[in-house]
């Protein structure tokens, strides 16, 4: 059985194809068969002009056609295309979804920040550093929004989505939203006393690698802060040419890192687990579970 997921984010569009590696009871171990990341930054238009430009509408249509053909080649059982913050907020987001549906015959689903956090939750406890009896705060920073969730004894206790993201906060930060973010985290951190943060998203995955941390090791707040300060000394061009960052990563990694760091400081945690899972893994796992339960 194979499934495919397209994550239409604010900073990029990612398509991933999965198969099943092993099944242990209720636990599904997946294997990634194919991955394609397209630098189609919908948030660049939406957070400035309120709508998706014609050029990017054309890009989304082309991506949808290509994805449909890839699904045929991979012979997938099922697939989902899910869109987050930028598509939710775009004045023409609904019209674009209808256009893709009529021209390509695939359906893009808009999911809320809470649904996004729930999907990510699907995969987090497969990480060996995460103990189901512990207390954690998850931080998922996307291009347009940040989802914070407090986990306690394997359960989602509190979750909230904030209009703070790597693309949205590139040039300026909404101070009212920033204050709400700080206060909300401080309030629930006091209640649940998380021992560590859990970070998901492309930017924290990249920072984890840049800090030289091995996959199964946690990243300390101190090392994270020092690496951010180091990167701040470089221009955008230098980050691309000398630090070898992708062009659509180099301009957002610092704004994203600032959000992760502030969340950790407000919660009083000094380590972050980076399990390298995200929305797509959670969606895929739900698709597999749905079909296995039917069979």
UniProtKB/TrEMBL annotation:
It comes from the Bacteria. Residues 29-285 form the Ppx/GppA phosphatase N-terminal domain. Pfam families: Ppx-GppA (PF02541). One of its GO terms (molecular function) is pyrophosphatase activity. InterPro entries: ATPase_NBD (IPR043129), GppA/Ppx_hydrolase (IPR050273), Ppx_GppA_N (IPR003695). This is Putative phosphatase.
């Amino acid at each position: 059985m194979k499934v495919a997921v397209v994550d239409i984010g604010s900073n990029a569009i990612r398509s991933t194809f999965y198969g099943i590696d092993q099944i242990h009871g209720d636990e599904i171990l997946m294997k990634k068969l194919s991955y394609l990341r397209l630098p189609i930054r919908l948030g660049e238009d939406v957070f400035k002009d309120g709508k998706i430009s014609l050029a990017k509408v054309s890009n989304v249509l082309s991506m949808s056609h290509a994805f449909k053909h890839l699904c045929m080649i991979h012979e997938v059982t099922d697939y989902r295309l899910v869109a987050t913050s930028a598509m939710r907020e775009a004045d023409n987001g609904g019209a674009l979804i209808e256009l893709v549906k009529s021209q390509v015959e695939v359906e893009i689903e808009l999911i809320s920040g809470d649904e996004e956090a729930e999907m990510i939750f699907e995969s987090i406890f497969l990480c060996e550093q995460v103990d189901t009896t512990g207390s954690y705060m998850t931080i998922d920073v996307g291009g347009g929004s940040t989802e914070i969730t407090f986990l306690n004894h394997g359960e989602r206790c509190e979750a909230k989505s904030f209009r703070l993201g790597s693309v949205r906060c590139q040039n300026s930060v909404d101070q009212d939203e920033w204050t709400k973010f700080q206060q909300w985290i401080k309030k629930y951190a006091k209640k649940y006393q998380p021992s560590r943060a859990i970070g998901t998203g492309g930017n924290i995955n990249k920072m984890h690698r840049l800090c030289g941390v091995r996959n199964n090791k946690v990243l300390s707040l101190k090392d994270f802060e020092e690496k951010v300060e180091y990167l701040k000394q470089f221009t955008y061009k230098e980050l691309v040419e000398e630090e070898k960052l992708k062009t659509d990563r180099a301009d957002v990694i610092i704004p994203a890192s600032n959000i992760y760091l502030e969340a950790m400081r407000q919660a009083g945690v000094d380590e972050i687990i980076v399990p390298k899972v995200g929305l797509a893994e959670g969606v895929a796992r739900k698709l597999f579970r749905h079909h296995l339960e039917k069979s």
